[in-house]
Amino acid sequence: MTDHSGTSMTERLFKVEARGSSVATEAMGGLTTFLTMVYIVTINPTMLASAGMPFSAALTATCLGAALMTLAMGLIANRPLALASGLSTSTVLVYGICLGQGVDWRVGMACVMLEGLLILVLVAFGVREAILKAIPVDLRRAISIGLGLLLAFIGLKGGGIVVASESTFVTMGDLAEPTALVALVSLALAVVLHARHVRGDFIISILVATLIGIPLGVTKLPSEWTFSLDLSAFAAPFQVTPQGTMAILQVFAQPMLLLFVLSMLISDFFDTMGVVLAVGQRGDFVDEKGDVLDLRTLLTVDSVAAAVGGFIGASSVTSYVESASGAAAGARTGLSNVFVAALFLACAFFSPVVGMVPEAATCGALVVVGFLVMCDVSKIAWGDMTVAFPSFLTIVAIPLTYSIPDGIALGFISYCLIMTCVGRVREVGPLMWVTSAVFLATFVLTFALS
Q1: pLDDT tens-digit series, residues 185-210
Q2: Helix, strand counts (H, E) of the chain
Q3: Residue 144's pLDDT is what?
Q4: What distance in Å separates the CA atoms of residue 166 and residue 158, rounded to the nearest whole number?
């Protein structure tokens, strides 16, 4: 369809050709992103169900939350940044709030919604954007590189190539195990196909590995079919709990829950910061100064998504670093998000089919994306200790702590400390000092409460 000027509707909405892409490439990027993050469709509902939430309601909310907010990001921000329920927030929600404090899951969702609204206020006043711009360029690069290593680690861990060890924390897994074999096939295909510039390299590696996993017992075939939606979790914060009180009112009656709201806010705040930088590097929406283009719009949609996630019962919906795989596959516009959203919507009805893709099958795509992000390490000024060491600490801490906020925190705090010790205090921006102080206070509070 074209308008009177001869410009297609797709081009007018998404500027696909203007950004050097095509509809086919955007579709390929969208499918790649979806396949690397589809694990959330089974993991998040399972976690929420352990807190007492009906599994069918959690599944519907997870799929619809991802579909709605990914589509919103594509249409409003026009960037290839997909969103879904964040596992870190779901972990706090389930084990910290619901099971830890003994409250109803609806109360937990009210905490998530409040956290999202607070972040939205920070975006409205420009605080979130200002903090990101206050970060030195080398530290921004370090954050995206650290996230790349985290992606690679997630891929290797999900494929059984790297496993836990009591003596060395992590070690090489049994490569003869079926899961590891599928992961190795995925990795080999992804590397070779990408090196040969084969179109759809990541998707091919994921699909072939998934098929190979069937006879090996790694890919689970559907045993039942689900075609209906369960919307009972919608408006969870405003539902009345078995205690006879509206869920959101119970949050304000328990001060400890407000601390959890603050904790989730800090985690979400810096999680998204790292993801936007990492995906922006691969998706060409970070300029030569290290500034993210359309940053305010991206952060606004992400903040709204967190609140929407709590409202519909999906936990906090947030930007996913796996979007970097779609960007690496060529996605450059929000059109890729339209494909991701459509697939998540289909998941609400066909989750057994989508759930067939094992984690091991996505190993190759995640590891290669980690490699691609790592290529930016040469841009860091390694000759300047004041930024080189904080950058190094950030890069290694993000994957080793398995936490984006913790890795960023160590980088920020060490940067301020080194700059102080070398007499360059005035070169550190006020927001860097404030943010580092908040991180330090969070560490102290966590230690005190443990």
Answers
A1: 999 999 999 899 887 788 899 889 99
A2: 20, 4
A3: 81
A4: 18
